[in-house]
Amino acid sequence: SRLDIDPYSITWNRVVDVNDRALRNIIVGLGPKQDGRPRQSGFDIAVASEVMAILALATSVSDLRERLGRIVVGTSKSGKPVTADDLGVAGAMTVLMKDALMPNLMQTLEGQAAFVHAGPFANIAHGNSSIVADQIALKLADYVVTESGFGADIGMEKFFDVKCRYSGLIPNCVVLVATVRALKMHGGGPRVVSGRPLHKAYREENLDLLRKGLPNLQANIRIAKAFGVPVVVAVNAFSDDTAAELELVREASVAAGAEDAVKTTHWADGGEGAVDLARAVVAAAEKPSEFSFLYPLDLSIKDKIETIATKVYGADGVDYSAEAEKRVATFTKLGYDSLPICMAKTHLSLTHDPSLKGAPKGFRLPIRDVRASVGAGFLYPLCGEMRTMPGLPSRPVFMDVDVDAEGRIIGLM
Questions:
Q1: Rounded to whole angstroms, how far apart are CA atoms 325 and 366?
Q2: Fewer Cβ in 10 A, N or C end of the chain?
Q3: Beta-bridge mates of residue 369
Q4: 3 state SS of 400
């Protein structure tokens, strides 16, 4: 072709919005010549698509167009990156995406305006709603609450080091959401299985188990405070949480540096259940923020990765596979080393291993591969066994879904 594309260098995967582990690694082009040349490829889950990340990080239609044009799909046989602009498709992509750039205006059950926009997961992408939604919200309200996915180790770190770099917005307060039940699990509590009754350890007072899990919450507070922003902990309280358990969480939070830890019941009582939290957030937001990024962009790729691994996850160091080493060298040569890092990592642990709970120490972070989302504007290392196409468990939840004799759907909840 005119671009002399090396078919074995193509990195652009197709995406689908259904978990399917069989699509992680596939061979395409096995038909006649007009169907393409045989090569190895794969599918990612739709929320891991670079286009989804671009939607969330673009600040205008023109910025959207530029980012889509910068997408790198592979290289020529001489090693030159081939972009969406080179292929001549960026303009058409922008036409398809321009209306999607406008946030969806919805409302809560109590009539509060809410923008629901974009969906990059925090474990396999940058995990935050769109910059455009935040910008519009800030023009309409005195206080804007924007969510980042999962814990401070992934969603929040990416909010600061990726989203804030491109939006230019500086947060006034971090709200960490915790539950007594989750902290008991991090303390070594019994395994929680979806659809099965909770073990009594989670429904009865157990201060010793809770105390063992508190280091996880304190680690999340430490991570947030490393960015220089005041922290408030929202403790979503269940009916069987005891006063002693809630007080233990509050004491541990304040000891770790949080401004406050407040019991919340908004999930049951609506806005009335979050009044105390709102007051605590307003008080914290009025305090000076000394926000700073975790690392400067002029650090090397490895130095940025190791900064996140050691200062956020608590790792002793980083180990790179041969493939990851090759990618780092290639991206440095191409000038992509100035991009921020967006780690692809399990959300179930501060480490790469989902079975390690609490706040583990004495581990090293393995990097299996490093990929580039040049249009979105970040590099994303794959930690441990993290996959960009999830798979269903041996007994998927859909096995409980059915329709009864009256045509009513059962088993969804």
A1: 12
A2: C
A3: 382
A4: helix
Residue with tokens 């939006």, as numbered in its chain? 167
Task: Burial-class residue 118 by CB neighbours within 10 Å (0-12, 13-18, 19+).
Answer: buried
Distance of CA 83 to the CA centre of its chain: 26
In angstroms, what CA-CA distances link 312 with 149, 266, 321? 16, 30, 21
Nearest to 181 by CA among 220, 260, 238: 238
The residue ranges of DSSP E strands in 313-407, in sequence order, are 317-320, 364-373, 378-383, 402-403
In what helix (H) or strand (E) does residue 104 lie, and over which residues does it extend?
strand 104-107
Task: Report whether 397 contacts 194 (CB < 8 A).
Answer: yes
The sign of the dihedral angle between the CA atoms of 346, 351, 353, 358 is negative
Residue 93 to residue 65: CA distance in whole angstroms: 8
Q: Which residue has the tokens 């582990």?
A: 21
Q: Are 235 and 262 in contact (CB under 8 A)?
A: yes
- Residue 244 CA to residue 250 CA, distance in Å, equals 10
Give the side-chain half-sphere CA count within 13 A for 162.
32
Q: Would you write out the chain's pLDDT as a tens digit for each of its 413 residues? A: 689 999 999 999 999 999 999 999 999 999 998 888 899 999 999 999 999 999 999 999 999 999 999 999 999 999 999 999 999 999 999 999 999 999 999 999 999 999 999 989 898 889 999 999 999 999 999 999 999 999 999 999 999 999 999 999 999 999 999 999 999 999 999 998 877 888 999 999 999 999 999 999 999 999 999 999 999 999 999 999 999 999 999 999 999 999 999 999 999 999 999 999 999 999 999 998 899 999 999 999 999 999 999 999 999 999 999 999 999 999 999 999 999 999 999 999 999 999 999 999 999 999 999 999 999 999 999 999 999 999 988 888 889 899 999 999 998 87
Residue at 188: amino acid letter: G
Radius of gyration, alpha carbons of the chain = 23
Task: Reduce the DSSP state of residue 366 to 3 states and report it.
Answer: strand
Residue 14 three-state SS: strand
- Residue 146 Ramachandran class (φ > 0 left, ψ -120 to 50 alpha, else beta): beta
Q: What's the one-letter identity of residue 78?
A: S
